[in-house]
Description:
The chain crosses the membrane at residues 51-72. Helices cover 31% and strands 22% of the residues.
Amino acid sequence: MPKKVIRICSEENFKKELEKIYDEMRRQNVPEEDIKKYFFIVTKNMRFFNIFDYIIIFSSVIMIFLCMLSYFESVSWYSSALGRIYLIKLLPIYDWTHLKNKPCLIERTEMSPIASDFECGSCENIQRLDVYDYLDEDDLEERYINLDIPVIITKSLEHWPKDSDFLDIAIRENSFFFSYPCRFSGNVHKGHGNVGEILDKVKHFNQFYIHFQNCNLEAMRIFRKYTFRPAVIPRTYSPTTYNWLLWNKDYNTTNYKPIQLIEKLTAFGQVFGSTHVKLVPRKNCKTLCPTLNIKLFAHELLVFTSLWDLEYKPTESGENMAIVMEIKS
């Protein structure tokens, strides 16, 4: 009997082909036992796709596609920002804030040692910070950013606001007013209020401090209209990823307040007043490099890298405001 070549396009077509073969074999008077043996050999290893199989294949393709997209910086940044927004929206349903400072959600009995991430040779001999009126962006990158050395520039924020009035303009936009800040700390509000509520409460206090991170995409965009990226920051660095507002008035404390930064480069801009800043070396450099104590004045810009942790203390008298910009390399 001649061999037949069967091209299977689907389960339905496959069954139709088998029916044709069966009818042909019956016409040729092939014994029933031989027909059964033939069909057993043909079908014993056949496995048809069902809906569950297609769901698995489709899900796998989507996951692979998303993983490939995550390698693009802009997609990764937007995914991270959307994740933060989702977590903020989740707060009224589930308070996850007690988990935010934990390194992992599931505790491990043994922790592997943390590798030394930083070269400390460039920071161990810092005695004071260099201060410039202006600095070329190439010099900033080569002499300071690449070597993890902080630097102060005094005349790069001349076009920034000179008082807090810009906030009154910003909160007129609903997307800024109703945005929820991340990592809020202050003495004027408890719980999870939006930016508009927090800034409104400030007006009722003679002595206050607040700081928070803008992590809502639209709120960050609005904020950047007034405290835009300084021209001295190298163009090889991406736009500001996150920005922070630090605002206080006549708040006398001896405690430094930590700001939890995550990006490679940070620009600390003093809008008005002054701020006591402390840069603490991180990880393996903590015992090798000195802690740097700095006082920034109006329109001064402090640029430093992720080798340093940032802490600040409100100036005990007067009104003071600073903006912290996290910039991704």
